[in-house]
Amino acid sequence: MAKAIMIQGTMSNAGKSLLAAGLCRIFKQDGYRVAPFKSQNMALNSFITEEGLEMGRAQVMQAEAAGIKPSVLMNPILLKPTNDVGSQVIVNGEVLGNMSARDYFAYKKKLIPDIMKAYDTLAAENDIIVIEGAGSPAEINLKQDDIVNMGMAKLAKAPVLLVGDIDRGGVFAQLIGTVMLLEDDEKEMVKGLIINKFRGDKTILDPGVEMLEERSGIPVVGVAPYLQIEVEDEDSLTERFDSQQEVGQIDIAVIRVPRISNFTDFNPFENIPGVSLRYVKHIHELKHPDMVILPGTKNTMGDLQWMRESGMEAAVLKLAAAGTVIFGVCGGYQMLGETLSDPDGVEAGGTMKGMGLLPMDTVFADGKTRTRVSGTFGQVEGELSQLSGVELEGYEIHMGVTTLHKGASPLTTIRDHAKTTEEKQDGAYTSRVYGTYVHGVFDKEGVAEAVIRALGKKKGIDTSEMKGVDFQTFKETQYDILAAALREHLDMKAIYEILEAGV
């Protein structure tokens, strides 16, 4: 069975996912078979495996760093919030159902056999398992029947590295306070502390590190720097949303709806020189973009209602009327149609008017489409005609069936990887409004560039130097940069000793 090491944090967004990915890459580089694991993930960013199963994207990113294919074994439980007090519960990649927070809290211990079956399968196939926790292990109200922090560490007999975020301030109180709130047997499992996201001269920090070790009785095994690494973020806490990016020669605005999901769909645009990708939540942030993207959402009807009440829908419709290109993905694509109907109460129930920009109707039902796909754009007309014939690949993950009106033009022809001989048409478009169900539609080399060429042509500017990159190759270089930085700033000798000694 594999040896295990676990990364826990003092809070959400302390950097657990990135550090786990970095350790996965280091262990891979050192010749070990390594896999990531997170028993329970709460995120709206999800992924569909080759088997058509759903898992959190953080473990997909970590699997890429480990050089292996993503497997639902790496994330047996995924919670996708549907509102402030409830989530869709996904177990082993399949939808179990919707539960309130209270109901799930009472139920979750029944999922331990599923967790351990997944973990043990991974452990039998690998040398090292890098486990990621969630939030903080010191959430007193959640400690009972915990299955993702110290509860998981005990199940896997994994030593813990506790990570604090110095960038947000108060890192010493974070680390000391977390340790103090742990039970005695839990404290004994914490074998190392890591200060993360440090900027500046480390020697200034040394007295604090000494005090931290003295008061906690736990060694500090590294002070990791603040890294500008371009890898996929786990959830809406991503700093991408808060960056005040300047408008580039080609400007793309993504509407930040309240339940935005799979916003990593748009990462390829971030790596093209001269292109700005901005996430906008308020009308005054919208400005005059060259393209507006309506992203995926866990609640299409609820987020369309938010767009309507906030004035964002009216602003987008005004831009569309003035000639701005509009592109919808998944839930954003559904919003662009004439009507949204929910006879079975899958979302909000009832029927509501769509934005009326594409000639189609969507009906929600209990069945969930989950599949990986590949295909090509059709003979596309209008502003994005340069997409014609370009290959694409990605995955579908949505509730609802969309029916085009007679005479409407589908955007792509795609093939379900699980049904190799069958093709189907996807999406729709008019002269300046486009939509698709395919997540990752811009990932394949050539798609994002074709969009930029089309927008540049419309604007009358030269985009010949605005070249994208092969996104998979780019991510590989980012994992190597991450590993090199962690090797420099973490005591890997101590971490290997912790891994070897166990608990």
From TrEMBL:
GO terms for molecular function: ABC-type vitamin B12 transporter activity; catalytic activity. The keyword DNA damage does not apply. Belongs to the CobB/CobQ family. CobQ subfamily. Pfam families: CbiA, GATase_3. CDD domains: CobQ_N (cd05389), GATase1_CobQ (cd01750). Residues 5-227 form the CobQ/CobB/MinD/ParA nucleotide binding domain. Catalyzes amidations at positions B, D, E, and G on adenosylcobyrinic A,C-diamide. NH(2) groups are provided by glutamine, and one molecule of ATP is hydrogenolyzed for each amidation. Residues 251-445 form the CobB/CobQ-like glutamine amidotransferase domain. This is Cobyric acid synthase. One of its GO terms (biological process) is cobalamin biosynthetic process. InterPro entries: Class_I_gatase-like, CobQ/CobB/MinD/ParA_Nub-bd_dom, CobQ_GATase1, CobQ_N, CobQ_synth, GATase_3, P-loop_NTPase. Pathway: Cofactor biosynthesis; adenosylcobalamin biosynthesis. HAMAP family: CobQ. SUPFAM superfamilies: Class I glutamine amidotransferase-like, P-loop containing nucleoside triphosphate hydrolases. The active site is at C330, H439. It comes from Blautia faecicola. Keywords: Cobalamin biosynthesis, Glutamine amidotransferase. Transmembrane segments: none annotated.
